[in-house]
Amino acid sequence: MTMTLEQISEKMKDIDFAMLATHTSGGAIAARPMSNNREVDYGGQAWFFTDDSALMVSDIDADPHVTLSYQGKSGLLGMRPFFLAVEGRALLVRDKTRFAEHWTKGLERWWPQGIDTPGIVLIQVVGERAHYWDGEDQGEVSLPAASASLA
């Protein structure tokens, strides 16, 4: 059975972390965990806060092509595991209005001054396609956000 974007979004609601993979200046692939704070209503775009000094920021500046990898609940109480890889493009957003739209409680742990923290940046990942594996089923979904403009 082919999953829809709505079904994928529903499975993502319990996933707190994604691995964000970028291309480094030396050509390697670097991945790091990024929290979505379980604030997921996925429609093809994902948003993550970071510091402007993070290496991934310079990676994205040089090459905006990224991959997000997610792992959902796996095999507990008869549940099938869920894995998702989203290929897309990242944009670095430095607009406080956008910060406020995506700010969630708990982020002040890393940014005590909230959206006024110097050097804070928001990463917007616009997915182009998603490949999923749901225990026995697998498939690929083209994402509508791919035709949307960034930011």
What does this structure look like?
This protein has helices at 5-12, 55-62, 96-102; strands spanning 17-23, 29-35, 45-51, 65-71, 83-93, 120-134, 137-142. The radius of gyration is 16 Å and the shape is globular. Strand 6 and strand 7 (137-142) form a beta hairpin. The protein has a single domain, classed as Pnp Oxidase, Chain A (Roll), CATH 2.30.110. The longest helix has 8 residues, at 5-12. Strands 1, 2, 3, 4, 5, 6 and 7 form a 7-stranded antiparallel sheet that branches. With 151 residues, it is of the alpha+beta class. The chain is built from 3 helices and 7 strands. It starts with a helix and ends in a 9-residue tail after the last strand.
How helix-rich are the residues, as a percent range? 10-25%
| Helix segment tally | 3
Unreliable stretches (pLDDT < 50, length at least 5) are none
| SSE string | HEEEHEEHEE
Number of strands: 7
Helix and strand composition category: alpha+beta
The CATH homologous superfamily corresponds to: Electron Transport, Fmn-binding Protein, Chain A
Radius of gyration: 16 Å
Shape: globular
Based on the structure given, which CATH architecture is correct?
Roll
CATH structural fold name:
Pnp Oxidase, Chain A
Under the CATH scheme, which class? Mainly Beta
**Biggest sheet architecture:** 7 strands, antiparallel
Tally of individual domains? 1
Strand content: 35-45%
The rounded distance between the terminal residues' Cα atoms is 33 Å
Mean pLDDT comes to 86
